[in-house]
Design brief:
Length: 399
């Protein structure tokens, strides 16, 4: 039978496919290529304090709907037909959500909120059904999660029906509810609260899924730089700006992937409480990493659009702020998975802060070069300091 028993919808623990990322999961992620593009474009067009706050709220929402789906597919097997169909339905809702992002605080608020609530509540209800009579602990856990998401969904829909500051306030309440829920163990009267034992995740799968999401974000940075360069007249300055944007993106990739992702995957896979570590290192710490990449994409747009302009705090907020937020996220991520925040990242943050002193003396493209140089120094420093350590740790079985 195509559907089969619900016991067969779960990932087989201990099998070679337990941590495998399936093709349908990668297909699902394509929706979020669109989301990231929409977020970066909207922030670039409305780069004001209000625009930044709205963009941050949308980033929190987009990340939350993606990471919750990742947790669900950590337990349910996407290669099973019912789970696969669930992901396709979520993809369609995700397209609606992504398309509404530029006007989410305007006329398309109900489309954004409706799609978001449908994805969050619908996916959780599916998990409740899939786990009923199959795994009592997880079934009860998803009953709690669904209760919290229904509560937050009321504020999402109510906010979409309001306007202006009232909408922002109601959506902020919804985000606070959803982001505080895991820390509170999804406590629900009559259902109790979740425990660490309820989050017996495949650490390698969570790590791989988050890494692929970061690839999507970095891919958007590369695509945006290439698209903008193709539309500009070919001049020595544009070539320099293009190289600067590319080098900066490569440095971001290097900082995250050279050691951070691999070490985190190993640590979470061998941790006694993988769910607790996954919640801190991947569910939460990746938010500033994502935000930093999106802000860096906006910074690259400013490099192309205003290369000769005098650098100021407005432009520096993206050109320097993007790398800074990215490094902060990596500090949190690597500190959580290794217990020792990398000194190179701290020095990089100091270096980016010191570049603010150069604003009266540099134009925009020069500031971009300096920011990229700081990222390159951070990447080289970490590589040089850990290259001597990692091989020996691997050989000793400690890495």
């Amino acid at each position: 039978m195509i559907l089969g028993g619900r016991e067969g919808w779960l990932r087989a623990k201990g099998s070679k496919n337990e941590s495998k990322v399936s093709f349908v999961e990668l297909f699902f992620d394509l929706v979020f290529v669109f989301s990231i593009s929409q977020l970066a474009h909207s922030l670039g067009e409305h780069f004001t304090p209000l625009g930044a706050m709205e963009a941050i709220m949308l980033i929190f929402a987009v990340w939350w709907v993606w990471i919750f789906t990742t947790w669900v597919t950590n337990w349910l097997d996407p290669d099973r037909m019912p789970v696969r169909i669930m992901l396709f339905v979520l993809m369609f809702a995700g397209l609606i959500l992504s398309a509404a992002i530029p006007d989410a605080f305007g006329d398309k608020a109900i489309f954004f909120a409706g799609a978001y609530v449908f994805m969050q509540v619908g996916r959780s209800l599916f998990a409740v059904y899939a786990l009923r009579d199959v795994h009592s602990g997880r079934h009860r856990n998803f009953l709690r999660i669904t209760s919290w998401l229904v509560l937050s969904g009321i504020f999402w829909i109510a906010g979409a029906l309001m306007e202006g500051e009232l909408r922002i306030g109601l959506w902020l309440v919804a985000l606070v509810i959803e982001y505080s829920a895991p820390a509170l163990g999804f406590r629900v009267p009559g259902l109790g609260k979740s425990t660490v034992a309820d989050w017996d995740v495949s650490g390698a799968h969570i790590a791989e899924r988050c890494a692929l999401f970061i690839i999507i974000c970095l891919g958007e940075a590369v695509l945006q730089a290439g698209k903008t360069f193709a539309e500009e007249p070919v001049t020595p300055l544009m070539i320099m700006v293009f190289i600067t944007a590319f080098v900066g993106t490569v440095a971001l990739w290097w900082i995250y992937f050279q050691f951070g992702h691999e070490r985190a995957a190993h640590r979470i896979e061998h941790d006694d409480t993988p769910g607790s570590l996954a919640r801190q290192a991947f569910t939460y710490a990746h938010i500033p990493i994502l935000a930093g990449i999106i802000l860096s994409v906006v910074g690259d747009e400013f490099l192309f659009a205003h290369p000769h302009e005098q650098a100021d705090m407005h432009l520096a907020a993206a050109i320097l702020g993007g790398p800074a937020v990215f490094l902060l996220g990596n500090l949190w991520f690597k500190g959580a998975t290794t217990g020792r925040p990398p000194l190179s990242h701290i020095v990089g943050l100091v270096g980016l802060g010191l570049l603010l002193l150069t604003l009266p003396m540099v134009v925009v493209y020069q500031l971009g070069i300096l920011a990229a140089a700081v990222l390159v120094v951070v990447a080289i420093w970490e590589f040089a300091s850990l290259t001597r350590v990692v091989p020996s740790a691997r050989s000793a079985g400690d890495h």
